[in-house]
Amino acid sequence: MALKYKRVLLKLSGESLMGDQGFGISPNMLHHYAHQIQELLALEVEIAIVIGGGNIFRGLQASGSGIERVQGDYMGMLATVINGMALQSALEGLGVYTRLVSAIEMKQVAEPYIRRRAIRHLEKRRVVIFSAGTGSPYFTTDSAAALRANEINADVILKGTRVDGVYSADPEKDPTAVKFDTISFSKAISLGLNVMDMTAFTICQENDLPIIVFDINGKNNLLKIVQGEKVGTLVEV
To answer: 1-27, pLDDT tens digit by residue?
Structure first.
């Protein structure tokens, strides 16, 4: 079976792990994503993952509690490592070989980010989970996803969300919102659509790396995308 995308970077939000909970990690959601990733791997797709930490801690919200912005950002990065460890455990429970890679050195739980080593893991059909963001404050996990995707020469970023694509307005608030099947980076910027943060968006635009925004909870959506079916919204130059 011909694959449209052979090396992908999957971006998951921390909130996607919560399920119906208001906080933390839902075992059901964890195993749901692990099974989807396993199915993708069975097609010999090379998979890297960047996961957020908003289900545990958000750096931007830390200032209200008296925590300095930089300190809060580092705390958020550590939250992504916790999520990465949970996803790694779920995948390995299915017999999937994984490597947890951290941009902040913590050799007891993850290996440091070395670009060539990460690419080699992908070539050996190991799922690589990138954690701790970029390792620097002031950058979101969207930026980390854009950076890592370009560094590993991914074919596409798959941004899993709760909605089935990019809309002209928030479809959960505005019933008249119109969905785009495809949209250019420049048009998305001019319309002020929040696909990813501007730093991440610019990195992808400058390096001609497409982004597909899709409903991560839709049945077989990941499989459909790598096989070339039109799912969600394609953002390209």
So the answer is: 689 999 999 999 999 999 888 889 999
For residue 98, what are the β-bridge partners?
Answer: 127
Ranges of each domain in the chain: 7-236
pLDDT surpassing 90 at residue 147: yes
pLDDT-derived band at 32 (thresholds 50, 70, 90) equals very high
Measure the CA–CA gap between 170 and 149, rounded to whole angstroms.
27
Closest Cα to residue 8, out of 184, 197, 231, 159? 159
φ and ψ at residue 227, rounded to 5 degrees: -90, 0
Instruction: Give the ranges where the chain is alpha helix by DSSP (H).
Output: 27-42, 69-93, 115-123, 141-151, 185-190, 198-206, 221-226
**3-state secondary structure at position 201:** helix
Q: What residue type is assigned to position 204 of the chain? A: C
* Distance in angstroms (rounded) separating the CA atoms of residues 144 and 204: 11
Q: Which residues of 115-141 are buried (b: 16+ CB within 10 A; e: fewer)?
A: eeebbebbeeebbbbbbbbbbebebbb
7-236: CATH topology is Carbamate kinase (3.40.1160)
Cα torsion 168, 173, 176, 178 to 10°: value is: 30
